[in-house]
Amino acid sequence: MSKLTGIIVYNIIKKGVLSMKQYQELRPAEKILMGPGPSNVDPRVLRAMSAPVLGHLDPDFLEIMNETMELLRYVFQTKNQLTMAMPGTGSSGMETVLANLIEEGDKVIVCINGVFGGRMEDICHRLKADVTALHAPWGTVFEPDTIKEALAKTGAKFVAIVHAETSTGALQPLEEISKICKEYDAMLLVDCVTSLAGCEVKIDEWGIDAAYSGTQKCISCPPGLAPVTFNERAQKVINSRKTKVPIWYLDLTMIQNYWGQQRFYHHTAPINMNYALRESLRLIYEEGLENRFARHELNSKALKTGLEAMGLKMWAQEGHRLPMLTTAVIPEGVDDLTVRKYLLNRFGIEIGGGLGEAKGKIWRIGTMGYTCTERNVLLFLTALESALKDQGYKVEPGIGTNAAMEVYASAKKA
Ligand SMILES: *Cc1c(COP(=O)(O)O)cnc(C)c1O
């Protein structure tokens, strides 16, 4: 070997192939996702995602889109033509609804009793709306009279409110508020990110004008799409805007022509995410909404009963607690992060901590969609008992799990 060849060979070995960083195949461990979302995903949905990519104008894909729209109408309990899935997570749905309907200077009432109401307010300000923010203590819900007074005072065109506040665990009743909105000729815009497919969301019967959701909560699909629905009245408002929708990517005046008859290209649909959503919706359709809601009710009841038996206090207003997300007060002397790490490292269970003013004070325990099972609830209560004991918290062995088991036993008898 000449000296030059030697140098070349040396450099290839030293700086080239052999010293290349090795990247391992992705193999994340299976976790039990009992936080505020994402929730676990049925293997059927993951299999659907691995199907071949189609063109976004391929007739086979257009059929998949049509069926997805039909299934979304089933889940939203609506006949709304404009019901589809936007690219992006739940927040993209939030921005789609607000940016398409609201124009600069429009009067909007935003109801804030947690993080997500606050996010709606932020977006409304960015849209240069004339915002009236109503506040209720975190963990509580709004009384219809509060909204009535604000409508009488402001004459607002829109009322924006969160149905299931995932940051607090409170479920907002909507029927009365919707009636008041009709009385004052205001449009009702609802965040159904966490509630959809976990409890009743009756878009038509309740008279909701526009709503949005996300795929990764009770729909149990990976994060990445945001189902939205608009009634005819809302559609008219969008199509008679004086100004262009300020966000090009979410502009429904253009996107509706792709999901509608014309099939105009606007942006490339996230093909495989749509496969996943269709399969998740098909699972919901097979189970039936009533059965699915009953499953969330039962597991949530067992969970809450178990936690209370262990001496933990529920945080959200009684009578308005979510069936897919339970907020429990962290007992005195117990460290939030240590417990959550213990659950994750020893049991592979993820739960959520508090957000904003609830940080360090509460845990948020999700029982959403595919994760919402008796097995997961019982395992979680057992795991939490172990984690609490590790922190020196006194709890009678098995008391939480046994209390939950009794809930299941009496449900089976009934
Ligand atoms: C999760 C959530 C959102 C935001 O959804 P992302 O998918 O995180 O963008 C909005 N509103 C509520 C009530 C939520 O729970």
Structure description:
This protein has 414 residues and is an alpha/beta fold. The N and C termini lie far apart (86 Å). It is globular, with a radius of gyration of 24 Å. The protein has 2 domains: 244 residues, 3-Layer(aba) Sandwich (Aspartate Aminotransferase, domain 2); 125 residues, Aspartate Aminotransferase, domain 1 (Alpha-Beta Complex). It is built from 15 helices and 14 strands. A 7-stranded mixed sheet has the order 2-10-9-8-5-3-4, with helices on both faces. Pyridoxal-5'-phosphate binds next to helix 4.
Brief rundown of the structure:
With 414 residues, the chain is α/β, with parallel strands linked by helices. The protein has 15 helices and 14 strands.
- Major β-sheet profile: 7 strands, mixed
Domain tally: 2
Low-confidence stretches: none
Q: Numbering strands along the chain, what is their spatial order in the largest sheet?
A: 2-10-9-8-5-3-4
Overall mean confidence score, pLDDT: 96
Number of contiguous helices = 15
Class from helix and strand fractions: alpha/beta
* Name of the CATH homologous superfamily of the largest domain: Type I PLP-dependent aspartate aminotransferase-like (Major domain)
Beta-strand percent range: 5-15%
Order of helices and strands: HEHHEHEHEHEEEHEHEEHHHHEHEEEHH
CATH topology of the largest domain: Aspartate Aminotransferase, domain 2
CATH architecture of the largest domain: 3-Layer(aba) Sandwich
| Terminus-to-terminus distance | 86 Å
Task: Provide tags for this entry.
7-stranded mixed sheet; alpha/beta; 2 domains; 14% strand; 14 strands; 414 residues; Aspartate Aminotransferase, domain 1; globular; 3-stranded antiparallel sheet; binds pyridoxal-5'-phosphate; 15 helices; Aspartate Aminotransferase, domain 2
